[in-house]
Batch of 4 targets.
Target 1
Amino acid sequence: MELGHLPPDADADTVAAHLRRWGYAIVDDVVDGETMDRLAAEVTPYVESSASGTDEYDGRFTRRTGALIARCPTVRELVMHPVALGTVRAFLDHVSAVQLHLTQIITIDPGETQQKLHRDQMAFDLFPFPPDYHVQCNTMWALTDFTIDNGGTHVVPGSSAVADDEAERMEQGQVEMRRGSVLFYDGKVLHGGGANRSAGPRQGVNLTYAVGWVRQEENQYLACPPEIARTLDDDLLKLMGYQEGAFALGYVGDQQDPLAALRGRQHRKQSIGDFARRRDAHADFAADMNDV
């Protein structure tokens, strides 16, 4: 099956609508080669020291390199990119806060076999979320070209709300995209890394987002030490989790706002009125991103 692609100027609502319909969306040529060159230079030493996986999910010829907010300044640009963040907020517009869930470079080396198809939301202790409730929105940025031969991601379009036994009989597609393009996929869609039959590695920048009230897959507070976190912009810090995930979730000590605590300021957590205004502001932000 050939997968559909969207142009780099596609608005957030268009990308999110494709994502809701099919469980994935591919947006071509979102960032330029210079951006990816910078990122590759920043991350290469960490990739080289990363160990390969040991099972069918992690891959025995696949390396996963995390803590990217602290290690790779260019990743911060991708995390906050208007195309990514606008789509995430439009897709997860049923919650008052979204948060960064995971940052990692996935390097599929030559000789790797196809990953077992799976749904990412299984990480939440296999909780049976309703079919129409999405708990996460994922991105995979192409640090190298994605091809059929080098392990482009397999996706089962339309499988998000379908039971496993039926979904496993549905037709698969394989992601082919140029460096600097991005794949969006939800937490319910069946997918998995491809087999690498080429002579070189396939590298993707896996940056995922989740609703604000769940635990993050990657512990952002330890992955990015406070001395580095204090140098980052407030908007990025809030996305990393230095905010309340919903009303009364995530405050510090004597009901102190988490971002204020990091900055050494005194500021109380939000009130119920603040929470209601934040819900409204979240909806306005998602609407505004359609114009980017």
Note: DSSP finds eleven helices and nine strands in the chain.
Target 2
Amino acid sequence: MYGVIFTFLKEYVEERHGGNETWRKLLKASTGQAYKLYFPVVDYPDEEIVALAQTAADALSLPLPAVLEDFGSYVGPRLMSFYPMYLKNNIDNTFDMIIHAGANIHDAIHRHNPERKPPQLSAHRESDNILIIHYQSHRRLCHVVRGIVRGLGERFNEEFTIEETQCMYHGAVECIIKVTKK
């Protein structure tokens, strides 16, 4: 996982869950180090971010899926700022953002680092009010994807119901997420 996600996780913990002291405690509990610098385009082991997220969930007495989804809602709008070169300037809604950015960002990551195995993410409109997202990754972070949808919805002042119609956690090859505008 690229360091930028660790940076976003650090910001998330600091802003929503107790500041830098909390971050250092989580880092120490999960990695054995109270201080660590993550560089945005360096690839770090996936297990490290999962350990950090699990440690955060334990500290908050929350289920890991809830923490991952909340983190996704935090990180979604930030990804727009971090990857502006892959976005169209006139995107003004969540559905178009997901359709356009998801594929372009992951394609660019893979192009710059062919060894990298980014998630397979695609989305299409079933109607004006329904978006279908297909997500497949060995990381199985569908909770983060749902959170990203929620976070982008907040960014664009849109409300959705989000339903996962199939999930890798239940034996499916990919997750299918149905997003319906309210």
Note: Residues 70-181 form a domain with the H-NOX domain fold (CATH 3.90.1520.10).
Target 3
Amino acid sequence: MLIAIFVGLLLILFLLGVAVPYALAVTAIIGMIYAGNFGIAQFGAVPMKLAAGVNSFTLLAIPFFLLAGKLMNVGGITRRIFKFCNALVGWIPGGLGQVNILASVVFAGMSGSAVADAAGLGTIEIKAMEDEGFDTEFSAGITAASSTIGPIIPPSIPLVMFGCTGGVSISQLLVGGIVPGLTCAIALGIMVAIMALRRNYPRRHFPTGKELWMLFRQAFLSLMTPVILIGGILGGVFTATEAAAVASLYALFLMTVVYHEVSWKDLVQTGREVCRETAAIMLVVAASTLYGYLITKFKIPTMVLDFFLTVSSSKYMFLLLINLFLLFVGCFMDSTAAILILTPIILPAATAFNINPVHFGMIMVFNLMIGLLTPPVGMCLYATARVSKLSFERVTKGVVPFYIPLMITLILIILFPKLTLCLTGA
């Protein structure tokens, strides 16, 4: 009955349109009342648990990564990156479709957010592709699909959330995302090339050395952002949280001192947006902490593990069932909420099946990133529809072919843990 309350009631509240943090808090309190553990002392512990959830140094990475991504969208960093990527890979079959993917890879090393990628780079990419003669649906589809690389290659807000919720090393999670992110980019690139050859899409001429060098010089300081971040984390120069602060300071330095492309009005507006989005995320974190504390106290993860053991003792059967479940969840639940709610329930079962927590975190996050492209709650679909001025249905139609490379990448991540763990030393 407790599982029915903590899972069933929560889903009902979601379907009724109750906001995620309030649904979590209501479910937790009703579960406490049902279990007979809701006295004066327990009621007083509720605000303490809510506050403890956000009282984390590691969570400081989230507002800093948000700030870095927004500063780069406001200024000309995205434009410089796009021009350089166009010269570098625009001659490959698929042309600007390949540029779209490479730009997402580079931008992924700065923002850590799929929606920020789709909204920021999408404006430039979709217009450029339409001007070159690409179908608008194809342009929107690859823009949305490639944006899922953002939360895989470090920095990554979803991986930070998973690490904080599951007590997993965030530095290892971030480093573990490099190879899977590049694998995803290669898979998407192959799909773009196949579609481009069939549809006879245009591509640019092979760049001259002089042209490539000029564009590289213009984009050099922008391209240094992921180098500084990833190199600093790999080299042990700074932690993931410190890396987020470094990214924000570097982006601010480029925009105000080097490029002079951000006004005080832009900075104030960006600060307001970051504060608003951070507050919304932290409210979910606080409520999910209370929820996670209670499901652990009532031994629900143990019940879930017992269920999986009754179905099968095979690790791969467990992974199959979990991934099918996560793909279903991703259709109806925001990825942040899903990570915060499900990690305390599923991760103990995964470790019991001898699955490395870093590997499982990558599986879970990448799976939920595919959910960003699945209706009815596909946030990247909505963001891309807004910047492309297409209907939600047409953007979804454009994304459909790219489910294939994304699912292939997910299967590779599941079957080959070394893709995730090869750079972590695990």
Note: The chain is about 80% helix and 0% strand.
Target 4
Amino acid sequence: MDLIRRFAPDSDPDDIARALTTAGAAIIERLVDEATVDQMLAEMQPFVDATPYGSDQFTGRTTKRTGALLARSPASIDFVANPEVLAVVDRVLGPNATTYQLHLTQMICIWPGGPAQSLHRDQWCFDMFPFPPEMDVEVSTIWALDDFTEENGATRIIPGSLLDAASCVADTHRTVGATMPKGSVVLYTGRTIHGGGENRSDAVRRALNVDYILGWLRQEENQYLSCPPEIARTLPERVQKLAGYTVGAFALGYMDDVRDPFAVLNGLDGGSSFGGRGIRTLRL
């Protein structure tokens, strides 16, 4: 069985992207320092406290899923717009679209006793649409906000499952735990079979899930409500575009009289139309 390849923070993004498109997953260890992780945890704790547990087995009856990271945690930008992660996403999603965007931002906290999540592919959220088998439409990331271990429910992945039949989501015996130290991240594609692990420890396992999709697909988390304009315009330009405040293709996502949403958000030239800035902005 293939294992999940591991990389240092200064690794060549071409090598990491190649691991994603061939084996389906890769781990970058200690990409964000522990102080930044702790800052984000402190900023998000009141929102986690107010979040209800999941309502079904898949979302987890002992799991809390807390979103809207960009609006709630300034420190989350270091994860959501991490340059090394985005460099990998550029390479994996770039060949298939003019732009890509955030799909969701979500802290996932699994309480002790939480069972393993059923295995699945993230891109199945698009109504099980049969994309071309070798086409990548999504890159997902799970950041370890605590050390990820086999005991506390490290994400389970089936390496090399990109082209496996749908029935292979039953192959729990093939999974490998994405064990990694705090501040590390596992990247995988929307075609990779995976699922949350069982928390057999006596502590909450905390993670950050950030996913990216092609600019012409609908976001799972509605960023325009989770991160409305009055908050979005305070964020760095690259993060505004990543959240979706830009045109997703030549005529996709414009505002009212064919105006560019990035220009409207920032009061640039009255929100000029397709001839203005913000068009074809894949590189963030």
Note: The longest strand covers residues 100-110.
